Amino acid sequence: MIAKPALVLDGLEYTYDSAPMRFDLTVAPGEWLAIIGPSGAGKSTLLDIIAGFLTPERGRVTISGADMRGVPPSQRPLSFVFQENNLFAHLSAVQNVGLGISPRLRLSPAERQRAAEALQAVGLVGFEDRKPGEMSGGERQRVALARAFVRQRPLLLLDEPFAALGPALRRDMLALLRDLRRQAGTMTVLMVTHHPEDALGFADKVAFLDKGRFVTVGPTEETLSASGIAAVERYLGTRALA
Ligand SMILES: Nc1ncnc2c1ncn2[C@@H]1O[C@H](COP(=O)(O)OP(=O)(O)OP(=O)(O)O)[C@@H](O)[C@H]1O
User: Fold this and answer.
1) Do 94 and 9 sit in the same domain of this protein?
2) Is pLDDT above 80 for 238?
3) Where a domain ends, among 152, 178, 204?
4) Which of 13, 44, 57 best tests ligand 1's pocket when mutated (most atoms within 8 Å of CB)?
5) Residue 69 has pLDDT above 80, yes or no
6) 200 and 137 assigned to the same domain
7) More confident of the two residues 230 and 134
8) pLDDT of residue 216
9) What total of structural domains would you count in the chain?
10) What sections of the sequence does the record tag as coiled-coil (predicted)?
């Protein structure tokens, strides 16, 4: 039997004030897809529709074969990591991760142990009782990733998760994400980024979004090198502005 696609976007339409954005896309299970494109292209809007924060005017989101119409964000089989503010400021690192295991703040010893192991997996041994305000931006994103992985949802949405970090740290975080995915088995990732180099070496495919439409979707290196597509080349700076 052929596995169901991890994600299908079928004629999704959403309009703010401008022309409707329209998204059609199929993502295979276990694929890591980077979504790039100019500012205002609709990248965050797209992730917000998939997560259920925005309701499309038309079309359908299907995750692992299940139609998401009417399914609230908290019930969708996915995790979401934003650029910032992923954590509850008044909770410790281990409690923030624990929320991915159970909505109760009072964790059982076994749950606390699991949350502590998740922190260990992201290199934060000794940070269990620290609050977000007592951690660096990179450390906070490690906690957010730890929580996303203990949730064990098949789809992970990342909206510029490492954008506030310097280039070396960003690479470390991408390598950490790659390792966590390997340990977790099959996890499909959609990652919005402004840095094509974040996709190279990590993402299997790149989808280029422009003015609310996918212009091209294909293997990372091929798509980023010689696309021949004016919008992509303008974005990458490999073509003079028309
Ligand atoms: N709440 C809103 N109200 C009205 N228009 C909005 C709203 N949010 C976004 N838009 C518009 O929708 C379009 C897509 O925005 P979106 O944030 O999805 O783009 P993006 O590709 O994520 O941009 P960036 O790379 O700058 O984060 C833009 O034209 C933006 O101005």
Assistant:
1) no
2) no
3) 152
4) 44
5) yes
6) no
7) 134
8) 94
9) 2
10) none
State whether 126 and 241 are in the same domain: no
Q: Distance from the CA of 92 to the center of ligand 1, in angstroms?
A: 33
58 shares its domain with 164: yes
Q: What is the ipTM of this complex?
A: 0.95
Are residues 131 and 59 part of one domain? no
Cross-strand partners of 13: 22, 58
Residues 98 and 194 in one domain: no
Q: In the Cβ-directed half-sphere of 202, how many Cα atoms lie within 13 Å?
A: 26
Residue 83 inside a domain? The answer is no
Q: Which of 103, 122, 152 is at the close of a domain? A: 152
Ligand 1 atom at minimal distance to the Cα of residue 18: 29
* Tens-digit pLDDT profile for residues 194-209: 999 999 989 999 999 9
- Our answer on whether the CB atom of 193 is closer than 6 Å to any ligand 1 atom is no
What range defines the domain where residue 145 resides? 88-152
Q: Which atom of ligand 1 is nearest to the CA of 194?
A: 25
Cα–ligand 1 centroid distance for 117 (angstroms): 37
182 in the same domain as 161: yes
CATH at residue 181: 3.40.50.300
Residue 239: pLDDT band (50, 70, 90) is low
Q: Which positions ≥6 away from 75 have C-beta within 8 Å?
A: none
